[in-house]
Amino acid sequence: MNWDDLRVFLAVARTESLSGAGRQLKIDPATVGRRIARLEEGLGVTLFAKSPQGYELTRDGGRLLAHAEAAEQAVSLGAEDVSGEGDEGLKGVIRIGAPDGCANYVLPRVVARIAQQHPQLEVQIIAHPRLFNLSKREVDLAVSVSAPTSGRFLVQRITDYHLSLAAMRWYLRQHAPIETPGGLKGHKMVGYVPDLIFDKELDYIEEIGLGRVDFSSNSVSVQLNMIRAGLGLGVIHDFCLPFVPGLQRVLPETIRLKRAFWLVRHADDRKVERLSRFSELLVQIMREEVAGLESGE
């Protein structure tokens, strides 16, 4: 396995297509396909599952992703070291805004890893169920569930994540088995307060066709605790599942949503090296942490 093959692997993982990776690397998509096949043959595993949505990482692919991104970071840091850049660690205060699910269950793990590398850095995580105003400098950068369509922003896709319908095992044992969507009739649903949904990407209950919420909150953490208390079923981020023993997916083959996290910065910060370096670390480690939490590792 060599670095060139890992670069191709990373491009396919990030674009989820051979053509997208080809455009990114400026090589023919057929060549990308051959390189991936060669890498899979050499490792003796399947790295991608092809679906109508594109190329999705398998479990083995997800495991390789963390190592490939670590190698990418090492190459980047090596180049920085040789060029005389990056001699000092990141310092000062950086404020991140994020929806509370991400802020509670993902970002603390991400920041802990960054802090190990940069002990003089102070990070503030602002968890808020709304959009942040970067123009007013409420935060230095924001993690968003949708990409802004207007304004002067630097926007980068961080990673995809998934959500599933879930309930406590003890709750499910007290009711008839749910084998089809029709079996959800009669169960209470937990979700967002309808008129406080600040982004259409959060309207999960409507998307899966249930159309009603019996117990609601504008906070993911509160919703999770409602489900933990046995108030009913709800749509939960897969990366939250490891934090609640006994929480079980319901109809996982039928109901599973896919979303993405986006990193948004003000365009004027393009030349701020400290924020750029921090953003690179944030994106890399968030990808690893979300993948690890979703796989249960």
From TrEMBL:
Keyword Nucleotide-binding included in the entry's annotation: no
UniProt keyword Nucleus, yes or no: no
One record GO biological process: DNA-templated transcription
Domain HTH lysR-type: 1-58
Family the entry assigns: Belongs to the LysR transcriptional regulatory family.
Cited PANTHER family: HTH-TYPE TRANSCRIPTIONAL REGULATOR, TRANSCRIPTIONAL REGULATORY PROTEIN
Protein name in UniProt: Transcriptional regulator, LysR family
Source species: Celeribacter neptunius
